[in-house]
Specification:
The protein has 21 helices and 23 strands. An 8-stranded mixed beta barrel has the order 15-16-18-19-20-21-22-23, surrounded by 6 helices. Helix 10 (265-281) packs across helix 11, helix 11 (292-314) crosses helix 12 (353-362) and helix 13 runs parallel beside helix 14 (407-421).
């Protein structure tokens, strides 16, 4: 068999499907093949004699390269994921293998790699999963932490400020629970593209886990951070479209700046996370830049969260229920009650539902909280009418994600039966934002309840994104106007026209309307003028325990 000639061997290597680079031990680049030129964008004459660091992205720390050389010295090879930079400045991930070779008694290093973002590099992509998120094609937490550590180590030489952003998608968990993981995965892919579209060349984004992302951004001016954060929250004002269906999400964004808010990568990421949590507390769909005050608030919230979980499991006596009456505005008679859960903790005292209910939802304990709600109501309600007025509604709040929980029916059906036994109507309230994202299966569950005599109400109406066409298809009977529109009611207020419009929509769809948060005579009078059906608020009655309310109900029945 005839030996291969040197030119034949060179042609074979030059046509190899993977990029190949030979470098001397100095090191200097001595040879590159055709695939190398295609991947990097450099021509041969531009790299021969240059140091391989010409390709460096600057995203890896000195410790990363030190570990690489130690592996070459001790094991004779190194293999792993590395981010390099093309001639046009674009950074890209490559799966690289380096090993020593000898030629004409000279020592060389061979670097063989594939662009991991290339669809043809399937084997390399599989090998890189330890560093790379396969769903979004973004770096994962491990690789982002490496980049962040490298950026901190370069700061002494570059003297440029940079920031870390922590981005969390609001309401994604509810959408994922209601529509399944396949739909959720496609929403995450589109969300990743939205986040990438906000960033500039040189910035970097990673998927940390679930619906959490992080970005490393360079700051050219004092206004850069505010501008990027604003664009990051605004990009989600438009719906994410999957299978021709619109899903409305938002993003809470936290930011931490080096070195003001941390002098290590781990501190920066942690403080950006804390700032993001502050954005959640501020109402979501906004951004916050880290401050020490936010840290204290975050620690308080963490302690509160741990206390709530412990109380739900071991201290049922800490939970109770109060009832806020709803009145017919034209007659002033009680039309129904809304049951509201309360939590009184030995250390924190009386905790606002606005603080502990979101924690129960986020931590996956909303079912346990509803169990305490139902238990307390059943302990209050009589087994028979016994002098109470008939035909009242008793409403409870249900989280949208509970509707997919198989345990829900077994929990609420005994309560519905007890309510019917005293000749009242059971009612469930679901916030508008969550109701708009319910799956067909969940809406069918609501329709079945409706056929069984359970009233379905849209809570906080006016704060979501429902269209008239979609509203017409929902199995609801009641709209509850959010208190923010009631607060500023008056003859010259634009909110008067909004409330009037909602009442017009309700009339067209044959729905009843309840106004929340009535606190003044002027608001009451204006709602009567607009012919709003029902209302509740501190003007008429504050939430109160059953024993205090029972007398009022019996008196009304006797009149």
């Amino acid at each position: 068999m005839q030996a291969l000639q040197q030119q034949d061997f060179k042609a074979l290597v030059d046509d190899h499907p993977k990029a190949i680079m030979l470098s001397t031990t100095e090191p200097r680049i001595a040879y590159v093949n055709r695939k190398f030129r295609a991947v990097t964008g450099y021509q041969t004459h531009e790299v021969i004699g240059q140091a391989p660091s010409l390709l460096s992205s600057g995203l890896h720390s000195s410790e990363f390269y030190q570990a690489m050389w130690e592996s070459l010295d001790h094991q004779g090879r190194w293999e792993g994921l590395i981010w390099n930079r093309r001639k046009n400045g674009e950074t890209y991930p490559q799966w690289l293998m380096i090993y020593p070779v000898e030629h004409d008694d000279r020592q060389f290093y061979a670097g063989v790699f594939m662009d991991v973002s290339d669809a043809e590099a399937s084997d390399e992509r599989l090998a890189s999963l330890a560093y790379y998120d396969p769903l979004t094609d973004l770096p994962n937490r491990l690789l982002f932490q490496e980049f962040l550590k490298a950026r901190v180590s370069r700061q002494a030489q570059e003297r440029r400020r940079f920031a870390v952003l922590y981005v969390d998608l609001d309401f994604f968990k509810s959408v994922n629970d209601l529509h399944g993981h396949d739909c959720g995965d496609r929403i995450l892919q589109q969300s990743a593209q939205c986040i990438q579209s906000v960033l500039r060349r040189g910035d970097l984004v990673a998927r940390l886990s679930g619906d959490e992302f992080a970005a490393l951004i360079e700051l050219q001016s004092d206004d850069d951070l505010e501008s990027v954060c604003q664009r990051m929250t605004q990009i989600f004002q438009a719906p994410v479209v999957v299978d021709h269906r619109e899903f409305f999400l938002s993003a809470s964004v936290g930011a931490a700046v080096f070195p003001d808010h941390g002098e290590s990568g781990s501190n920066l990421l942690q403080n950006a996370d804390r700032a993001m949590y502050s954005a959640k507390l501020a109402g979501r769909a906004c951004y916050r830049i880290y401050s020490a005050a936010d840290t204290e608030l975050g620690r308080y919230e963490q302690r509160l969260s741990e206390a709530l979980i412990a109380s739900l499991k071991t201290a049922p006596e800490e939970f109770s229920v109060v009832y806020q009456p709803q009145y017919q505005l034209d007659t002033g008679r009680v039309a129904g009650l809304e049951a509201l859960i309360r939590w009184n903790h030995p250390e924190f005292g009386a905790v606002s539902p606005a603080d502990f209910v979101p924690i129960a939802e986020q931590r996956g304990h909303i079912h346990e909280l509803t169990e305490h709600l139902v238990r307390c109501i059943l302990a209050d309600l009589p087994a028979a009418p016994g002098g109470l007025p008939e035909g009242l509604c008793l409403a409870i709040n249900i989280s949208a994600r509970q509707i997919t929980d198989n345990r829900l029916e077994g929990l609420v059906n005994p309560l519905f039966d007890r309510i019917r036994r005293i000749a009242w109507w059971p009612e469930i309230e679901i916030t508008e934002t969550h109701l708009m994202n319910l799956s067909v299966q969940c809406l069918n569950r609501l329709r079945i309840w409706g056929e069984e005599g359970v009233i379905v109400a849209i809570d906080d109406f006016g704060t979501g994104y429902s269209s008239l066409a979609y509203l017409h298809t929902l199995p609801v009977q009641v709209l509850k106007i959010d208190r923010q529109f009631i607060r500023r009611l008056g003859s010259k207020s634009r909110d008067s026209r909004i409330v009037s419009a909602i009442l017009g929509i309700a009339e067209a769809l044959d729905l009843e309307v309840v106004a929340e948060g009535i606190e003044s005579e002027e608001q009451y009078r204006k709602l009567c003028e607009l012919k709003c059906h029902r209302g509740q608020g501190f003007l008429m009655a504050r939430p109160q325990p059953w024993l205090a309310l029972n007398t009022t109900l019996i008196d009304q029945h006797q009149k």
